[in-house]
Amino acid sequence: MLFQNNHLPNSVVAYAQDYEHGKFEPYHAHNCAQLLHTLSGVIRVETRFGSWVIPPNRGMWIPAGIEHSLHMTGLVKVRTLFIDPLARADLPHDCSVIDVSMLLKALIIEALELPKDIVSGGRDERIIELILDELRRLSSVSFYVPLPSSDALASLCDHVSQRIAHDWTNADGAHILGISERSVTRKFQQEMSLTFAEWLRRKRLLLALEYLASGKSVLDTAILIGYDSPSAFSAMFKSRVGVSPTDYLLQSP
After folding, report:
1. Pseudo-torsion of CA 149, 152, 156, 162, nearest 10°?
2. Dihedral sign from CA coordinates of 233, 235, 241, 245
3. For the chain, which residues score pLDDT lower than 50?
4. What pTM was estimated for this model as a whole?
C-alpha cells in the first residue's frame, strides 16, 4: 500500500486503481492525507470511529495516520489523491464523505499525468495549487454510521445490524439492554450524537448502497433493509442521496 512509510515526491500525488467485486484491503494507515474518489462501484471504509460508504461520483477524505480498511462492492474504479498534510494549514481533520465538484474531478484526471519532478512556477505546479484550493472547499454528506463507545450499545448495534430488516423501535432496544426507552435515547445521544431511529436509517442507507452496487434490484434491496414497500424506501433514499434508487442506478457507470 502506498505512502505508509515513504514520503510524497510532491505535495499532491494522484493514483488510479480498479478493484473487482468483493476485494478487501485490511486495516492500514498512510503518512499523508487521502481523498478517495469513486467513479463506479461502492467502497465501504471502516475505522475505529465508524463506517462510511462512498457511492459512485462521491469521495471520502481520510486524514493522515487514520487506520482504515476498504471493502469493495461492484466493479470499483477509484482515483486517489495523496496529500501532504502540511501543504495547507486548514485541510480537514476528520473523516467524511464529500461531494466532488466538476472542477476537482477534472483536476484529479490532470494530476494523474503529472511528473514526479514539478517545475516551480509552471502549469503542473499551478494544477497542484488549484487542487489544494479546492480541497479547502469540500462539502460533506451524511454517508456515515458512527460506532458506540460502550460495550452495551455496541452489542445492541451489532444485534440490530444482524437483523436489519426487523421493525426496530426504541422499545426493542430498551428490552435488549434492560433499561428504559428514555435511557436508550440518552445513550445514543451521548455516545453518537444521534437518535436510535437516525442511526438505524443511516445503517440501512449504507447497506442499501452496497446492495444496489452488488446488482440487487430496488425491490429486493427495500425488503432486505426492512422497508415494506419500494415507494417508502425510494422516498428515504431520495431524501438522503438526492435521487431515487432507480435514477441512482442509471447514473452509475
Report:
1. 80
2. positive
3. none
4. 0.87
For residue 8, the SS3 value is coil
Cell numbers of 228, please? 415494506
Q: CB 22: neighbour CB atoms within 10 A?
A: 11
**82 close to 33: Cβ distance less than 8 angstroms:** yes
Residue whose C-alpha is closest to residue 176's, from 154, 197, 198? 154
Instruction: Give me the phi and psi of 71, to 5 degrees please.
Output: -125, 120
The CA distance from 96 to 54, in Å, is 10
pLDDT > 70: percent of the chain = 97
Closest to 37 (Cα-Cα) out of 62, 7, 12, 20: 62
Q: Torsion angle of alpha carbons 51, 57, 58, 62, nearest 10°?
A: 80
Instruction: Provide the 3-class DSSP secondary structure of residue 80.
Output: strand
Q: What's the start-to-end Cα distance of the chain, in Å?
A: 26
Backbone angles phi, psi at 14, to 5 degrees: -105, 150
What pLDDT sits at residue 1?
64
Burial class (CB in 10 A: 0-12, 13-18, 19+), 135: buried
Closest residue by Cα to residue 54 from 102, 99, 17: 99
- List the alpha helices (DSSP H) in the chain: 102-111, 123-135, 151-162, 170-177, 181-192, 196-213, 218-224, 230-241, 245-251
- Please name the amino acid found at residue 105: K
Per the CB < 8 A criterion, the answer to whether 114 and 72 are in contact is: no
